[in-house]
Design goal:
304 residues; alpha/beta; six-stranded mixed beta sheet; four-stranded parallel beta sheet; 11 helices; 16% strand
Length: 304
């Protein structure tokens, strides 16, 4: 599919939807009377993993054959997923990467994968990157990459289309859990999840970045996507482990132990932080006895 204004056939990629929901007995939660379910969004598609499928699918449809321009850092899961989608669907993609200095260095494995999948990389200085949402800056970037009529997807993939796509995640979990937890970067998955859960369901977001800005972002995304607030959601900002792309030995030990207990690979930068938060919250008594908690596994470890 390469012709202009053609809608890509996403069904041809055979996504596994709805993603599996599996009970996962964990003694640390069971002692507190809490039942744990794992929502395996990491199994939706081997290359468009987890919430990347849910956020990208509506944007790829809207692109209608145009170049997709998007943004990310040097280790962005979102850039890799967009590049893979471009290869699979025959869509040209451009990744605008934070850090002009990176243009002079060998590509790290994450960016090398993007290039191997056909993505054209355009490096910008950090000041320009911070202003990427300003119309004049965005227009200059699109001119620089020769894609003035591109379909633009923001950093992390979170826009109104993505939020509407993530509403299906909440709908798949409606009535299945009392609390649904998800790791948050830009807030789009949480915004859509909360909207889809319906009455009686509560969404819990675990930000992986510092700064305390995410609540406003989620509210803005819901307003953009739905015209106003939707659903019952909250944030617990204690579990970023130093910020984006940062981990600690304690988190690494926890993730390795969870993998051994449950037999699933645990992505460290997002999923491990959310799972760690659930264990701590259970031990703190944050969940009433008899509560069913679903943890959304939004991604898989990057293997290089």
């Amino acid at each position: 599919m390469t012709s202009r204004d053609a809608v890509p056939d996403l069904a041809a990629l055979r996504p596994r939807l709805p993603s599996p929901l599996r009970e996962s007995a964990d003694g640390r939660l069971e002692r507190r009377g809490v039942r744990l379910l794992l929502k395996r969004d990491d199994l939706i598609h081997p290359e468009l993993v987890g919430n990347k499928w849910r956020k990208l699918a509506p944007n790829l449809t809207a692109a209608a054959g145009r170049t997709v321009v998007t943004f990310g850092g040097a280790y962005s899961n979102h850039l890799r997923a967009t590049a893979a989608a471009g290869r699979l669907l025959g869509l040209p993609t451009v990744g605008v990467v934070r850090g002009q200095e990176l243009a002079e260095r060998p590509l790290n494995p994450s960016l090398a994968r993007c290039v191997a999948d056909g993505m054209r990389l355009h490096f910008v200085d950090r000041s320009t990157y911070r202003r990427k949402s300003e119309p004049s800056t965005l227009a200059a970037v699109l001119r620089a990459v020769g894609a003035r009529d591109a379909h633009v997807v923001p950093e992390g993939g979170s826009n109104a289309l993505a939020v509407q796509g993530c509403r299906a995640l909440g709908e798949e979990l409606r009535g299945r859990a009392d609390v649904v937890a998800v790791a948050c970067g830009t807030g789009g998955t949480l915004a859509g999840l909360a909207a889809g859960l319906g009455p009686g369901g509560r969404a819990l977001g675990v930000p992986v970045l510092k700064g305390g800005f995410l609540g406003a972002e989620v509210r803005a995304l819901q307003t953009e996507a739905f015209g106003g607030p939707r659903g019952d959601w909250s944030l617990d900002e204690r579990f970023h482990f130093g910020g984006y792309a940062r981990t600690t030995p304690a988190l690494e030990s926890f993730a390795a132990d969870f993998e051994e207990r449950h037999g699933i690979p645990v992505e460290r930068l997002y999923v491990a932080k959310m799972l760690y938060a659930l264990v701590v919250l259970a031990e703190e008594g944050a969940f009433a006895r008899g509560t069913t908690v679903a943890a959304v596994v939004t991604g898989a470890p990057f293997t290089g």
